[in-house]
Design brief:
The complex is a heterodimer of chains A (126) and B (111). Chain A has 126 residues and is mainly α. The N and C termini of chain A lie far apart (55 Å). The mean pLDDT of chain A is 91. The N and C termini of chain B lie far apart (40 Å). Chain B has four helices and no strands. In chain B, 89% of the residues lie in helices and 0% in strands. Chain B has a single domain, classed as Fumarate reductase/succinate dehydrogenase, transmembrane subunit (3 helical TM bundles of succinate and fumarate reductases, Up-down Bundle), CATH 1.20.1300.10. By secondary structure, chain B is mainly α. The interface between A and B is medium-sized, with 25 and 32 residues.
């Protein structure tokens, strides 16, 4: 690989017009790192819910409240975005959906499908 | 092991654990959505079943391994000074191992 001594270095995120697959891709990374930070919280809820009947009721109350529902929506959005984008990457690994119009359409599908699936699951879990 | 092989191994881990998580997350979410535990006793009884508990621990293992490979990639991409990078990777590893041991303790105490 040739290296240019004066290659352009242009990383202003407000000016770069990232293609849709790029937006979806950085969303995959952001959602993934965000989801990792929720792991200890969910283990905490699980531990508490199994500690005693009173703690189980306390957890039931917490997860019925709107602050938890708001958190759960954001969590499910991150999870479903990561999930759909992950399926898309696994398909790309086996050369499915790698052609030009399709890879853009599936990127739009991932971006739109994340919040829609999150709302459906939020409704199912409520 | 060469650097290439180590990268390939991470790539394979990421995909094998991804498939496990793709199977387990729908099962977990749909279980909680369609048969939520009625009370504490039912909840403990559900998790005490050997298959449920073992399945959950395998899921946690896959999740933590998946998280390790993914966040490690992000750290290597964005954190360049070697001290900061090693610190971040160490904190990540300790945090994930801690989560794993915590989940193990929770499931063992439930069973």
């Amino acid at each position: 690989m040739t290296t240019h001594p004066k290659r352009p270095f242009f990383l202003n995120l407000l000016v770069i017009r990232l293609p849709v697959a790029g937006v979806m891709s950085i969303g995959h990374r952001i959602s993934g790192v965000t989801l990792v930070f929720t792991i200890p919280y969910f283990i905490h809820l699980l531990a508490l819910s199994l500690a005693s009947p009173a703690d189980f009721d306390a957890v039931s109350q917490t997860i019925a409240g709107w602050p938890f529902k708001a958190f759960l929506f954001l969590f499910l959005w991150a999870l479903m975005h990561h999930f759909l984008a992950g399926i898309r990457y696994l398909m790309l690994d086996i050369d499915v959906g790698i052609e030009k119009p399709l890879y853009r359409q599936t990127a739009w599908g991932v971006l739109a499908g994340g919040p829609v699936l999150a709302l459906i699951l939020l409704g199912a879990l409520s | 092991m060469s650097r290439q092989a180590s990268g390939l191994r991470a790539w394979v881990f990421q995909r094998v654990t991804a498939i496990l998580l793709l199977l387990y997350f729908p099962y977990l979410i749909l279980s909680l959505a369609f048969s939520p535990p009625a009370n504490y006793a039912a909840w403990v009884a559900w998790l005490s079943q050997p298959l449920v508990g073992m399945g959950f621990l395998i899921f946690v293992g896959a999740l933590l391994l998946h998280a390790w490979v993914g966040v490690r990639d992000a750290i290597i991409d964005y954190v360049h000074p070697i001290t900061a990078r090693v610190t971040a990777l160490t904190l990540l590893a300790l945090g994930l191992i801690g989560c794993g041991l915590w989940a193990l303790k929770v499931v063992i105490l439930a069973g």
